[in-house]
Design brief:
Layout lengths: L2 E6 L7 H16 L3 E6 L5 H12 L5 H8 L1 H16 L4 E4 L6 E3 L8 E4 L2 H10 L2 E5 L2 E4 L4 E4 L5 H12 L3 E6 L20 E3 H9 L7 H10 L3 E5 L16 E4 L12 E17 L4 H11 L7 E3 L7 E9 L3 H10 L1 H4 L3 E14 L9 H11 L6 E5 L2 E7 L3 H11 L6
Helix pairs in contact: 1-4, 2-3, 6-8, 7-8, 12-13
The protein binds adenosine-5'-diphosphate (ADP), aspartic acid and magnesium ion.
Length: about 425
């Protein structure tokens, strides 16, 4: 019998009625003879509430206690789903991260999974036909014995890690859309569902803002070769034949994709901030003087643009950081003013990064140039650009995000007909 991991996100377990719906999806697979490990998120809105309470209690709080608080949402859902399954006659038991255990490092709030022990789950599949219901998003740091969480959206990563640990044939990510789309369907109604997307492309999409999958879940899937399907929990459980094909997106090896398009998808992120350091001396060592202190302050710098100096003596240097790092970055640069020797510091948080992704870009030139022209025609100003092998990104005013996404979506022929 095949082993399956079924992961359900927040909207899919939003209330008891939705949890009953999830239980029917699980029962369908169990009745078909599969051994199932379910991974659940907190009920919709719960994690946001828990995070808000931590901030309310103290804006600067201990990350270990943040984890103790925010990990609780998943515990509730796991218990409720196990109760519901038992009520339907499915032998089920809930598990928290520490009980398996799911070991992580001690980066509280954004911990990395180190290993998952699936032995007890497998024993119970074999000896008791017992379904496991695992709280997503959480693990334990072995040395300190403290609960950790994997970062927002981290239940996807829990699911893929469990799938790797139990050697699952498939890891099904059930969510509120029926797959991965060419871009966020909420922004571009003409977005199309992809039947398949390569790990590398999904990794870029997720890191560049498509929150349909947690970035680390894709990294893990790639390393352990887990077959990840993104599909909808809103399809009626009774309408699905567990032995037939279903609607969804397979995230897989590039080699499995026969018809490769040049551009696969478009992602965007509004969690960006721009900092411009004005009139810095144009001499060797100045970039080091700026980015050294930022690195020491753990600020992640993304796009960097250095202007050519008009007079040969000073120049402007612009870079982007995650919006959450904005204040820290400004303070760091202000402190280093003496060493850098600049004139003025400008900043903006009303910016967005729009990115175009596709493995086909490796072998096609001029893909980005088309975008610059199309955006110019829409009178959308580009503040910064970065490119790499399979993607490029532009920084624009946040107010133009949706328009830019739709323009590029049409430009690269991604609109559904
Ligand atoms: P869950 O709670 O199930 O984990 P998420 O809210 O984390 O669900 O992710 C699903 C959402 O991701 C969708 O509702 C959709 O708006 C958004 N999304 C962003 N980009 C994409 C994309 N390219 N394809 C599909 N969904 C996307
Ligand atoms: N509940 C967590 C969050 O909202 C983890 C998840 O849903 O994946 O971020
Ligand atoms: Mg999610």
């Amino acid at each position: 019998m095949a082993r399956l991991v079924m992961k359900f996100g927040g909207t899919s377990v939003a209330d008891i009625e939705r949890i009953r719906n999830v239980a029917r999806h699980v029962k369908r697979e169990v009745d078909a003879g599969h051994d199932v490990a379910v991974v659940v998120s907190a009920m919709a809105g719960v994690t946001n509430q828990l995070v808000a309470w931590c901030r309310d209690a103290a804006p600067l709080h201990d990350a270990r206690e943040y984890d103790a608080v925010v990990a609780s949402g998943e515990q509730v859902t796991a218990g409720l789903l196990a109760i519901t399954l038992e009520g339907m006659g499915v032998n089920a038991r809930s598990w928290q991260g520490w009980q398996l255990p799911i070991h992580t490092d001690n980066a509280h709030g954004a911990a990395r999974v180190l290993d998952v022990n699936g032995a007890e789950l497998i024993r119970r599949f074999k000896e008791m036909k017992q379904t496991a219901v695992i709280a997503g998003f959480q693990g334990i740091h072995k040395e300190t014995n403290r609960i950790t969480t994997l970062g927002r959206g981290g239940s996807d990563t829990s699911a893929v890690a469990v799938a790797a640990a139990i050697g699952a044939e498939r890891c099904d990510i059930y969510t509120d859309v029926d797959g991965v789309y060419t871009t966020d369907p909420r922004v571009a109604p003409k977005a199309r569902r992809l039947d398949k997307i390569a790990f590398e492309e999904m990794l870029e999409m997720a890191s560049l803002g498509a929150k349909v999958m947690h970035v680390r879940s894709i990294e893990l899937g790639m390393v352990h070769n887990v077959r990840i399907f993104v599909r909808s929990s809103f399809e009626k459980p009774e309408d699905i034949n567990p032995r037939a094909n279903f609607t969804g997106t397979l995230i897989c090896d590039e080699a499995e994709i026969v018809e490769q398009q040049v551009v696969t998808g478009i992602a965007f992120s509004k969690d960006e901030a721009q900092i411009s350091v004005r009139s810095v001396p144009d001499r060797p060592g100045v970039a080091a003087a700026i980015f050294g202190p930022l690195a020491e302050s753990n600020v992640n710098v993304d796009m960097i643009v250095q202007n050519v100096s008009p007079d040969g003596s000073t120049t402007d240097l612009t870079f982007t950081v995650p919006a959450t790092d904005y204040e820290r970055a400004r303070i760091t640069i202000e402190k280093a003013k003496g060493a850098i020797g600049y004139d003025r510091l400008d900043g903006a948080t009303d910016v967005a990064k729009v990115s175009v992704i596709g493995i086909g870009m490796r072998s096609h030139a001029g893909v980005a140039a088309q975008a610059f022209k199309a955006l110019a025609e829409q009178k959308i100003n580009i503040r910064a650009i970065t490119t790499s092998e399979i993607k490029f990104s532009v920084l624009i005013d946040a107010a133009h995000t949706d328009q830019a996404v739709r323009t590029l979506h049409t430009l690269y022929g991604l609109d559904k007909s």
